Amino acid sequence: MRYELTDLRLFLAIAEAKSLSGGANAVHLTASSASYRLKNLEFAMGVPLFKREARGMELTSEGAFVLKHVRSLLAGVERMHGEIGRASCRERG
Asked: Where would I find the beta strands (DSSP E) of the chain?
């Protein structure tokens, strides 16, 4: 399976905002684009990640499980970028 980092960042933003529009704004997407991306992510994973409610979005149990892994994965990506940046500075210096 392949997942887009943009989709994983969007998923995290929606989970933190507990709102599709709030999550979309956080990652600079329109609500319709965010909705499309989230539906595709849920389809790829084969499970609903959120319960859509009148007052926002709540993680499903599967969504909570995915959230734990997405946080870890995105933290690893950030560490990788930091390490690459430091290594390239040493090589130039």
From this structure: 50-53, 56-59
Q: Could you count the other beta carbons within 10 Å of the beta carbon of residue 23?
A: 24
What is the H or E stretch that residue 59 is in? strand 56-59
Contacts (Cβ under 8 Å, ≥6 apart) of 82: none
91: how many CB neighbours lie within 10 A of its CB? 7
pLDDT per residue as tens, the chain (93 positions): 789 999 999 999 999 999 999 999 999 999 999 999 999 999 999 999 999 998 999 999 999 999 999 999 999 999 999 998 887 777 676
C-alpha torsion 23→29→30→35, nearest 10: -60
Q: What is the pTM of this model?
A: 0.88
